[in-house]
Amino acid sequence: xxxxxxKELLVPYExxxxxxxxxxxxxxxxxxxxxxxxxxxFVTGRTKKxxxxxxxxxxxxxxxxEEEIEDIAGIRIMCQFVEDIYTVVELIxxxxxxxxxxxxxxxxxxxxxxxxxxxxxxxxxxxxxxxTKKVIAEVQIRTLAMNFxxxxxxxxxxxxxxFVPDTLAERLRRASDAAFLLDQEMSEIREDIMKAQAxxxxxxxAYKELVDRIDELFDLGDTKNxxxxxxxxSMLSSxxxxxxxxxxxxxIGDAIEEHKKVVLTNGNSxxxxxxxxxx
Length: 279
Ligand code: 0O2
Ligand code: 0O2
Known about the structure:
The chain is α+β, with helices and mostly antiparallel strands. The chain has helices at about 5-35, 50-60, 65-70, 80-95, 145-160, 165-190, 190-220, 225-235, 240-265, 270-279; strands spanning about 40-45, 75-80, 100-105, 120-130, 130-145.
């Protein structure tokens, strides 16, 4: 196949990778916007390199590239905990914009190399200028520890051109078991970690609300109080407790209410200004 033909073949896969990345990143955003813990930590994606596709075609004796090579479009979803992997799998299975056509559970049945990950093979429809085209995409879902291991093992395989010396391969298998043990240990304290992270998120949100409410005070014309609260907030330490932030938020809320009452009693000062201006 000519280079131009390869490029044309890859266009729908590039399209699929871009769309799927956005969709999975948005799942994370949705969780965080609600102030909830996200089972997705981060997402990456790539279209397989032409040279790697050719190598796979030759190795497997592929006749139909689009049907037989499942990872031309590849998405990787990283999770903090093993449990999150299964949450993500269920989320994907429940969606009606992508169809799961294959499952490879390399967590229960980890590979000889020590490789662990959960793979889903998807059929994903993209809109092209010639209508809808369903492309196959592979989604690898793994923990941060599994990803750490796979990234290093992959670079070693590359260094040794896939012929990793036996002693090194054995060490890698042991390192994979150690990484999995770490995942299991982390799962044991998952509840505590999740609570702590949710607490940080709530604090961040409360802090942002404080800033918004000070802006509201400025907009209402209560500059004196707005500046006073701005100074108070700037003195909050980075590890300020949620209760401290909530206390200031309440004070600002009271100041806003108070200011609105005064404006109602004395008439709208803005309107007065306008009148003067018209005169
Ligand atoms: P943020 O919040 O700015 O970090 P892109 O085209 O950039 O959307 P691509 O090309 O797949 O996506 O990007 P890349 O560089 O492979 O990484 C994707 C996202 O994963 C980036 O975030 C990286 O910051 C994040 N990422 C990569 N490695 C790690 C890691 O080890 N830990 C964590 N927590 N994040 C990582 P974004 O989407 O640009 O957003
Ligand atoms: P890339 O783009 O370099 O990651 P095959 O690829 O022939 O073994 P199959 O069925 O096509 O078999 O794919 P499989 O094994 O289900 O999944 C293929 C992808 O999973 C690989 O892509 C890797 O990304 C990942 N993977 C599978 N086994 C290992 C492993 O032992 N170590 C690491 N680090 N990753 C693995 P490619 O083809 O390597 O391409």
